[in-house]
Amino acid sequence: MPCKVQSQKLAGLAIEADGAFRLARINCDEQTKLAEKLKVTSLPPHLKAFVDGRVVAEYTGGLSESSLRLFLDRILPHTGSLLLQKGKVCFCKAIIKALRSRLDNMLSSRMASRMAC
Q1: Residue 60: which residues within 8 A CB-CB, separation 6 or more?
Q2: Less packed terminus of the chain by CB within 10 Å, N or C?
């Protein structure tokens, strides 16, 4: 029963987070090999957070909704971090575009000078 309660709380938080994280539940009785690999048992509930396939945080036992929020808050990127990352990507794309334009101009100039000879 604690697993179901925690699972329902996490499902609600996942909906609220609007795609900020994916929630996966393992039935230890049906997925024994995966449960063994992740070192989880049916009781007490196990909560593991993965980023790029690595466990970055975990907790064993039931958590209140406020504690689950704190757990997620520690591992999820904050809006400011996401905006900064998006800005860096846009900046890099702009630099790449400018460099491609310069390269194209340089190559065009070289081709034109070779054809003139």
Answers
A1: 44, 45, 46, 47
A2: C
The pLDDT tens digits of the residues spanning 32-65 come to: 999 889 888 767 778 889 888 888 998 888 888 8
* Domain spans, the chain: 2-76, 78-117
What class, spelled out in words, does domain 2-76 have in CATH?
alpha beta
